[in-house]
Amino acid sequence: MSFRIPDEKISEIRDRSDIVEVISEAVRLKKTGRNFIGLCPFHSEKTASFTVNPDKQIFHCFGCQEGGDVFSFLMKNENLSYPEAVKSLARRFGITVAERPLSSVEKGQMSEREKILEINRHAVIFFRKCLNQGTGGEKAAAYLKRRGVDPETLEKFHVGYAPEGWDHLLRFLSKKNIPSPTMQRTGLVIPRKTGDGVYDRFRNRVMFPIFDVNGIPIGFGGRSIDDALPKYLNSPETPVYHKSRSLYGLNFAKKRCRETDTVFIVEGYLDCISLHQFGIENAVATLGTALTADHLRMVKGHAEKIILVFDSDDAGIKAAVRSVSLFMKYDNAARILVLPENHDPDSYIRAMGPDKFRELSEKASSVMGFLMDAAVKKHGMTVEGKIAVIHDMIKPLASITDTVARSLYIKALSERVDVPESAVMAKLKEFQSQGKLQGRMTGSGESAKKESVLVSGGSDTVSPNIRSERRIISMMLQFPEILTDIERHDVLSFFRDDQLRSLGMCILKHIDKADHIVAEVLNDLDDDENKRIVSELGIGDEAWQYQGCIKLIQKFVDNSRIFGEKDLIDQIRAAEKNNDHDLLIKLLSEKQRKAQRSERLKMSLIAGR
Hints:
Strand content: 5-15%
Radius of gyration: 31 Å
CATH topology of the largest domain: DNAb Helicase, Chain A
Shape: globular
Number of domains: 5
Structural class: alpha+beta
Helix content: 55-70%
CATH class of the largest domain: Mainly Alpha
Low-confidence stretches: 440-461
């Protein structure tokens, strides 16, 4: 990291941060009791298992076991380093984190990610200056004017220009003492084939900076303004940029998405920019790749209603069809808008205006409706065509888990092709039978289920004493008033699980910070697995009371004594069998000592504090 952030400053930032507010920018949360729940942004699910506790300022997903505090969420969701997450929240809540020029040693300690982001910021400024003032910028400005992009929109999206020539950006970055290997990791420069140096990747192109959801530049897209191929050239994958997990314009669109509960997904930079310019500010674009599950998780955090907008040409239809399987798996409620012939989003909104676009979007097809239309258009309504249409529709129908919805779609398909519902149903059952047979042959899913059970900590494979120890840890995190009793009576010494005992000791270290116990413990842990355990056990909504806690401890101590006695009895019997008198005396003495200690603890708990 570039500098060390004092612990007291981190505590101030965490205390000022509202975890519900922060996570709500990525996850749609609903209040349930004292917690908030939503669909997890870290794995695909249809039933909400992602839980946020505002009192303890933590989150936990009971599906994938991810959890932690507000810093952990930003690090995971936005691929930030710890200092980046801290500084991001500090900026958001107006907290000053003192910075100073980096020494040469500190520059060497900067993470690769931080270095790439810093270079990207320099590049955004460079490309903007080249568009407005640089040689050749007038050509790019003229192209953008022909495309109808106004100056305010260019400024908003930080659109720039990469000049003709091989080393303009290279020389600009070199003057800032940025070494060539670091430049190469950004993807902005690439090595010469001859092996003697590097040159600019983007040349004579209109440049579209790609920002993450917080407005930090993570990559670039360049559009040629002559006949150079490829027409669009994007940054390669880097530690900060992954096209399957990035959406162009989301940083500008997220506010309007939440206000309208709707997001439009288009395919091109200029399509997205034009929609914004004409007031459709809840539009985002994919980045030269098909829609992914990560894209869906990103937008679902901002809007419930998803409308994919495609061109009317064959390429647009094919792209829509490719997206269907994803929606059938993750979001049956999505809709698909295929624009009228010879139009893309840019041309349509310029020709027809935003009101007509909104009106047309209200008529967007459901996923199944679009598939039926596409299949009929492709195969026609001859006898052979109808057979082919049904064949194309069987797999999507089989993916629908809601039996009522599936029945309605079967009815709609049978009416569309004029084939009895029973015939469609028979074909569907045949397809499902083949799938089940294949599943039995491959044994799919069993290892994943076993792994899930072991991670959850709630299965019968976990011994009763371990479950009791987890409950004690949960009590310590959720009802810190009991910590003094835990410490005074040395309850953790009865733990048999080393990991849980270690977590308990970590909790006791923060006994004087009971109001923020979970956050303080999470901040003290480096191991991700331990963090997940703490977030899971600390996020409960149980109404703990002191006397109930004491009874739980008494029961735990009694059970621990029973388990301990069984182990000692087995060892005593083995010593007797081996005629090991010295060991036998030692074990008998230990048995008596443990029994006396357990009895004293029990009486002390009964007597109260």
